[in-house]
Design brief:
Helices cover 0% and strands 45% of the residues. The protein is built from no helices and 13 strands. The strands form four sheets. A four-stranded antiparallel β-sheet has the order 3-4-5-6, with no helix packed on it. A four-stranded antiparallel β-sheet has the order 7-8-9-10, with no helix packed on it.
Length: 139
């Protein structure tokens, strides 16, 4: 279950124990929360884990058992937003990294990545499937 590694210099790495033996796909630092938040594409109800230091991880309930692919933190909105490549509702949000809420998507396509733009005050996500609808934005 050593599915996490940490390094203080980027060259020497130490294995750490993850909260669950899932397929961890994304990680994000939410500075204002003092938390690292990681997402998984596998597991049952435990597709989120959090850590204040990268060493000790806690399992969190995901809003849905989707194949979560990416997440980002908006300090201006005080919100974490995650996207998934499969499932019925492919967005989930959290203000604390612990409690997650499913949100509707404009298209049920394979969402791969999301980011926050403070200059535009919006989230942008991209997909590798769909026709004419591979980008979505939201304030």
């Amino acid at each position: 279950n050593q599915r996490v590694m940490t390094s203080s210099d980027g060259r020497n790495w130490t294995l750490r124990t993850a909260a669950a033996a899932n397929s961890w796909t994304a990680i994000c630092w939410a500075a204002e929360l003092g938390l690292l938040v990681a997402l998984s594409s596998s597991g049952r109800g435990n597709r989120v884990m959090t850590s204040p230091d990268g060493i000790t991880w806690s399992s969190r309930n995901s809003a849905a058992d989707n194949a979560w692919t990416s997440l980002c933190w908006s300090p201006q909105r005080e919100l974490l937003v995650a996207v998934a490549s499969s499932g019925s509702s492919r967005i989930m949000t959290s203000a604390d990294g612990i409690t997650w809420t499913v949100r509707s998507t404009p298209a049920s396509i394979s969402w791969r990545s999301i980011c926050w733009s403070p200059q535009r005050s919006q989230f942008a996500a991209v997909s590798n499937s769909g026709t004419g609808n591979r980008v979505m934005v939201s304030p």
